Prior knowledge:
Elements: H1 2-44, H2 49-58, H3 62-73, H4 79-88, H5 93-99, H6 106-147, H7 152-162, H8 166-171, H9 178-183, H10 207-240, H11 242-250, H12 255-264, H13 269-280, H14 286-294, H15 300-307, H16 311-335
Helix pairs in contact: 1-3, 1-5, 1-10, 2-4, 2-6, 3-4, 3-15, 4-6, 6-7, 10-11, 10-13, 12-14, 12-16, 13-14, 14-16
Amino acid sequence: MSCMWDVLLDAFLDTLKLSWILLIFYILIELVEQKIAVKMNSKLKSKYSVAVGSAFGIVPQCGFSVLASDLYSRRQITLGALLAVFIATSDEALPILLSNINEQGVWLKLLALILSKVVLALIVGYAVDIIAKLAVNRSKKQEHSNDDPSNENHAHDDHDHAYEHIHEEVLEERALHDHIQDEQSDEEVDIHKGCCGHHIDDGKESNVKKYLVHPLLHTLKILAYILIINIIMGIIVYLVGEDRLADFMSKSGVLQPILATLVGLIPNCASSVIITQLFLDGTITFGSCLGGLIVNAGLGIAFLFKSNKRIKENFAIVGGLFVFAVIVAIIFHYIIPQF
């Protein structure tokens, strides 16, 4: 019985060590949110949307993925930009890794995760936009060819010129509907929310509430998740044994990255906490962690289904993202079995 109490005490102390670091980090995040949440709206609608999405997605705030989903549902950003934000988003992974930065090798894990997410977001984002551009180009060229076969060469030149500005055309596809945004209710366009549900750009809130109360509440929520995970892992290690657990995970093969990616699909910050903690404990590989965090876009995916009425399209986006994440997870799982 005393050993079980030791497990609980160790879990509590390990969690307590992270408290002040997480609180400081979330206060800084709140300051960042207040400054760039509105700016991101316009930046995402620029021709550099994929690069902007990849950069802003790294900031551990699910509000940015929600914003991207809202803009995509109104066709103000491309699919590539949306996926770039989703892939780059890590939710609570970075704060947890930073809070453990003093442990051996954690800084390397943090750097590898950030670089991998940004590079993959850029590659997928630009690749998807290029493919979409070529598909639209081919479709329109076929239409022109069918209408007037004698002008095929002329049509080809026209399309080459038109698609130099394809990004601008996509962003302006539904310009006639922009006026609706101002008339929508707060519930329909409520995209500037912090992780605890408060409005990022609510001018009525005091600075104390914005920069202390909300970060404190967020810190307590994440610490609760971490404590639960530490207790569960401590009990498993106590009952099963660390060597047996490590042996089981090492022999789980392709099942581990697939399961980690499935956990990442859960639209809650608890899923990123679970994945990151298991990675820090050495229970799962870097590939499994990466796969789970690629699909872990915070509330972005959930909001996509709420705002975008094209249900089949939503399932195609999430399905494609999941398949990509699994492939990446399996590849890195075997390339980097131990970190």
